[in-house]
Design a protein that fits this description.
elongated; 287 residues; single chain; 11-stranded mixed beta sheet; mainly beta; 5-stranded antiparallel beta sheet
Length: 287
């Protein structure tokens, strides 16, 4: 029968009908609970039961939470042996989240591998590998659940702009990136990264003293990644963006160049004090 999750202030859960499967399961959404006075960051719902040949069973739930650190998904489970003994479960695998039929995020279990796209009902599909501890249950399968998240989409604190979106093989293109900090919170420090495809022969270069091609290998190696640049920005301020000009040389092969920005926000001496922003990708056109 459908179950009603507990009320939460920032997350509302769709009750899910748990269906047994070999090897897949589907959870159907029910009515969302009203926000209450409890404090919670993660919402869970039954997602399916994996069954083995010797009556082993794994009851899997899917849990999701959204916020400034991204969309996080995990798959807690209970393993039951053929004799009915229950064990703790170790779960791993991958997940995909769809909203309105469109894929909006994906990642590994458990993890917050994607930006949180904001409130809405997410249909989450997970390919789960469940193992019991002690050993005895080892099952794989697909489970699904619908979860309604109401946490607001985090306000953007930084953004990245670039003046070109197309590279061409056999040519050098100069890209001008502009990095903005729009929030008064945090400080002016950020780590800006540009990465081409490793096996394409792409070379990234700049005259900006804040940037280097990353050093790899053990000492005394001097090898550097020519398809990547790492820039240490220290003067980002609201109203004062930072500009980085990069020369991208493609040889015979195409390569996309992606951009990322790691930044810091004020949370004292806590371990997690920042975030990661995915910037624009510059593609390649052979025409």
């Amino acid at each position: 029968m459908p179950t009603r999750p507990r009320s939460v202030p920032i997350l509302a859960g769709a009750a899910v009908l748990c269906l047994s499967l070999v090897p897949s399961a589907w959870g159907r959404p029910g009515p969302a609970p009203r926000p209450g006075g409890e404090s919670a960051a993660t919402l869970c719902a039954p997602a399916g039961t994996l069954r083995g040949e010797h009556d082993q069973r794994v009851a899997v739930s899917l849990c999701a939470g959204g916020g400034p650190r991204g969309l996080s998904v995990s798959a807690p489970a209970t393993c039951t042996s053929g004799t009915g003994t229950r064990y703790s479960c170790l779960t791993s695998g991958t997940w995909t989240a769809r909203r309105g039929g469109t894929t909006v995020a994906s990642g590994a279990l458990p993890g917050a591998d994607a930006a949180y796209p904001g409130p809405g009902t997410y249909e989450i599909t997970a390919a789960v590998h469940a193992r019991s501890a002690p050993e005895g249950v080892d099952l794989r399968g697909t489970v699904r659940a619908a979860l309604t998240l109401t946490a607001p989409e985090p306000a953007a604190t930084h953004r990245i702009e670039v003046d070109h979106r197309v590279l061409r093989p056999g040519a050098t293109t100069t890209l001008t990136y502009t990095v903005h900090r729009d929030s008064d919170a945090g400080d002016g420090s950020a780590r800006f990264g540009l990465i081409g495809e490793a096996d394409s022969g792409a070379e990234l270069a700049t005259d900006d003293a804040r940037c280097v091609n990353p050093l790899v290998g053990r000492h005394p190696s001097t090898e550097r990644l020519r398809h990547s640049l790492d820039c240490a920005l220290t003067d980002l301020q609201p109203g004062r963006p930072s500009t980085v000009r990069v020369r991208v040389t493609l040889k015979g092969a195409c390569s996309t160049v992606v951009s990322k920005l790691g930044y810091w926000m004020p949370r004292g001496q806590e371990v997690f004090t920042g975030g990661m922003l995915v910037g624009p990708a510059v593609g390649c056109d052979r025409a």
